[in-house]
Design a protein that fits this description.
The chain has 3 helices and 7 strands; from the N terminus they run βααββββαββ. The protein has 156 residues and is of the alpha/beta class. It comes from Sphingobium vermicomposti.
Length: 156
């Protein structure tokens, strides 16, 4: 029989399940980010798997591997002095005539809808080391970001 008509199993036609990708670079965290990561690991470890479907157990284990790795590699950053934009600062800026405030945090803590952006995001990278009053080029169409205020975040 031709190999084209032979099927070993249904398993070979399933989508492969990959690990959750680890963001490149250091795993910097704020005190809040470290607490949230610990809580995530504890919550995943507390899930009872006895009545779960096999695929759900695999997904849980994959999530747990990711969060345990993130906890093991977390690098708690000190609270900055906020003289310049850096990791762990809250920054108020003007862009395109609008004023916004963002907090620069770690990759896993980032939530743009809540005003928390990753230190590796393009906007954060553009603002790093800037001081109040500086105008920075941002974007390909000549946009500029003006830094209006900088303050440290001290939430745990």
């Amino acid at each position: 029989m031709s190999v084209a008509f032979r099927r070993e199993s249904d398993e070979e036609h399933l989508e492969p399940k990959f690990e959750i990708p680890i963001p490149p670079g250091p795993n910097w965290v704020t005190a809040r980010g470290l607490r949230l990561t610990r809580e995530k690991v504890e919550a995943l470890e507390a899930v009872a798997t006895t009545d779960m479907a096999e695929d759900d157990v695999k997904k849980l284990k994959r999530d747990l591997r990711y969060w345990r790795t993130r906890l093991a590699t977390a690098q708690l950053q000190p609270v900055p002095n906020a003289e310049a934009v850096t990791f762990g600062t809250r920054v108020t800026y003007r862009l395109n005539g609008g004023t916004k405030t963002v907090t620069i945090v770690g990759d896993d803590e980032a939530d743009p809808n809540d005003g928390r952006i990753s230190f590796s995001s393009p906007l954060a990278r553009a603002m790093i080391d800037a001081e109040v009053g500086e105008q920075l080029d941002f974007g390909s169409n000549g946009q500029s970001v003006e830094i209006l205020a900088i303050s440290p975040i001290e939430e745990g």
